[in-house]
Specification:
By secondary structure, the protein is an alpha/beta fold. The chain folds into two domains: 121 residues, Aspartate Aminotransferase, domain 1, CATH 3.90.1150.180; 265 residues, 3-Layer(aba) Sandwich (Aspartate Aminotransferase, domain 2). 36% of the residues lie in helices and 14% in strands. The protein is built from 15 helices and twelve strands. The strands form three sheets. It has a seven-stranded mixed beta sheet with strand order 2-8-7-6-5-3-4, sandwiched between helices. Strand 5, helix 7 and strand 6 form a beta-alpha-beta unit. Helix 6 packs parallel to helix 7. The chain starts with 12 loop residues before the first strand and ends with a helix. The relative contact order is 0.16. It binds pyridoxal-5'-phosphate.
Length: 399
C-alpha cells in the first residue's frame, strides 16, 4: 500500500539520484521527525530565519570574511535558508541593492544553464564572458580570469559563478578580480556538496554569497536551499523574502538579522515572497544540514558500493559491461555505469531507458549518458529491496 495509490500514481524506483523531477533525495527519519515536530507548533518566521542564520553561519563559516566594497569590513555570520531558487533570486536582488544602479552580471559562457533564470528573473542581464573552445571543438582554452575583468563595466553588479569541481577559471581567481573592482561574487553551488568541506571552502575562496541545494546530498526537504555569505547581502535577501504584512509600528525582526534602522520604511513583499519556505521545511533542513555536516550519512554512503556491486554481478552475461565510478573519498556517491552493447542487443540505450520507465514497477535510471549507450545507476534512492528489483529488471532488458 502506498499513499500515492489513492491518487492513481505508481511509485517508481528512482535510480537517478536526487533529481527534482523525481522528488529529490530521501529524507532520513530524523529529518522527517523534525518536519512533523516543527509543523505542530507556531513560531514567527523572522525569528526562525535568524536562528537558522546562526546555525548555518557556524557550519559554513559565512560572514566571517572581512571584505566590503564600501565602508569598513564587517564581521557577522549570517545565512538564512530558503529554496535554492529563492536564494539565487533574492541573492541577486541583494547584490543590486548593494550597488547604485547595476543591472549586469558576468558569468562565463560555459556555465550558462537553465537555472540562471532565477538571476534573470530578479532583474539581472547576464553578460557572457569568454569562450569554451574545448566543448566547441575549436581549441584548447576555456574562459579566463582576465576576460571577466575586461567585461566589467559601469553597470556590472556582480559575478554569477556556477561551481563544479572543474569550473574554470577558479573561484579564487574570479573573486580576486571581482573584489578588485568592488564587485561581489554569487556562487551557484547547488550540487557542490559532497564533500562537506565545501560548505566552508567556497566562502573561504572568496564567494560573497553561496547557494546550496537543501534537497540533494544534504537530504533536507526537496524545495529547500541555503544561502550563506556576507551579512549585509543576507539581510537584504531576507528582506526580499520575508512576509512583510505587519504594521510598521510593530515590525520587530531580530536586530542582528535585519537592522531596522538601516531601512527607510517597512518594505513590501519582495521577489523571494513567491518562493516562500515553511517553518517545518526550515527546521527539517537544519536537522539535515547538521547530520550532513557531522558525517551523519557516512554509514549510508558506505553501503552504496556493495549494493552497486551486487547489481553489476547480476548483470554478468548480459549484453552490457558494468563499471563502478567511485572517487573513493568516502563522501561522493559511487555510480554504476552500464555500457550497453546496442548492436548485439538490437536496441539502443534510449529504448532500454523507455522500457524501464514503462515497466512494472517503473524504473528511472540516470539518463545523462544515453547518447553514449550508457545507463547510469545512482544509489541514493535505491535501498536493498529496490536494488534487487532493479537488478532483475535490468537483466531482463539487457539479455
Ligand atoms: C540542482 C541544481 C540547481 C537547482 O537546485 P534545486 O535545489 O533543485 O532547486 C541549480 N543549479 C545547479 C548547478 C544545480 O545542479
Amino acid at each position: 500500500m502506498s499513499i500515492y495509490d489513492d491518487l492513481g500514481i505508481e511509485p517508481i524506483i528512482n535510480a537517478s539520484g536526487s533529481v527534482t523531477r523525481l522528488g529529490g533525495a530521501p529524507m532520513p527519519p530524523e529529518v522527517v521527525k523534525a518536519f512533523a515536530d516543527a509543523a505542530a507548533e507556531a513560531v514567527p518566521l523572522d525569528q526562525l530565519q535568524a536562528a537558522a542564520c546562526r546555525i548555518i553561519a557556524e557550519i559554513t563559516g559565512a560572514g566571517k570574511r572581512a571584505w566590503s566594497p564600501r565602508g569598513p569590513p564587517r564581521r557577522s555570520p549570517w545565512a538564512p535558508r530558503r529554496s535554492w531558487r529563492a536564494s539565487i533570486a533574492a541573492a541577486w536582488k541583494s547584490c543590486r541593492f548593494a550597488r547604485d544602479f547595476p543591472t549586469n552580471s558576468s558569468s562565463h559562457a560555459s556555465s550558462r544553464n537553465g537555472y540562471d533564470h532565477a538571476v534573470r528573473a530578479a532583474g539581472a542581464r547576464l553578460i557572457e564572458v569568454g569562450f569554451h573552445e574545448i566543448v566547441a571543438g575549436a581549441g584548447v582554452r576555456r574562459a579566463e580570469a582576465w576576460e571577466y575583468e575586461a567585461a566589467f563595466g559601469p553597470n556590472t553588479a556582480g559575478v554569477l559563478y556556477v561551481f563544479t569541481p572543474d569550473s574554470r577559471p577558479s573561484l579564487r581567481e574570479v573573486a580576486e578580480r571581482a573584489h578588485r573592482r568592488g564587485l561581489p561574487v554569487l556562487v551557484d553551488a547547488a550540487g557542490g556538496v559532497p564533500p562537506r568541506e565545501r560548505l566552508r571552502s567556497l566562502i573561504a575562496d572568496g564567494a560573497d554569497l553561496v547557494a546550496f541545494s537543501g534537497g540533494k546530498a544534504i537530504r533536507g526537504p526537496q524545495a529547500t536551499g541555503i544561502l550563506c555569505g556576507r551579512r549585509d547581502f543576507i539581510a537584504s535577501a531576507a528582506v526580499q523574502m520575508l512576509d512583510m504584512d505587519d504594521h510598521p509600528e510593530l515590525w520587530a525582526p531580530p536586530q542582528e538579522f535585519i537592522e531596522r534602522g538601516k531601512l527607510t520604511g517597512l518594505p513590501r513583499h519582495g521577489i523571494g515572497r513567491g518562493f516562500k519556505v515553511a517553518k517545518e521545511q526550515i527546521v527539517a533542513l537544519l536537522t539535515a544540514l547538521r547530520l550532513f555536516a557531522t558525517g551523519g550519512y557516512d554509514t549510508i554512503v558506505r553501503g552504496y558500493r556493495p549494493r552497486l556491486e551486487r547489481i553489476a554481478t547480476a548483470l554478468k552475461g548480459t549484453r552490457s559491461v558494468c563499471q563502478i565510478l567511485d572517487r573513493g573519498d568516502g563522501e561522493t556517491f559511487p555510480q554504476l555505469e552500464i555500457a550497453i552493447d546496442e548492436k548485439a542487443l538490437g536496441r539502443n540505450a534510449f529504448d532500454v531507458c523507455r522500457r524501464l520507465r514503462q515497466g512494472k514497477p517503473p524504473i528511472y535510471v540516470g539518463h545523462w549518458r544515453l547518447d553514449q549507450g550508457r545507463l547510469m545507476i545512482s544509489p541514493m534512492n535505491v535501498d536493498d529491496a529496490a536494488a534487487e528489483v532493479l537488478a532483475r529488471r535490468l537483466r531482463e532488458e539487457l539479455s
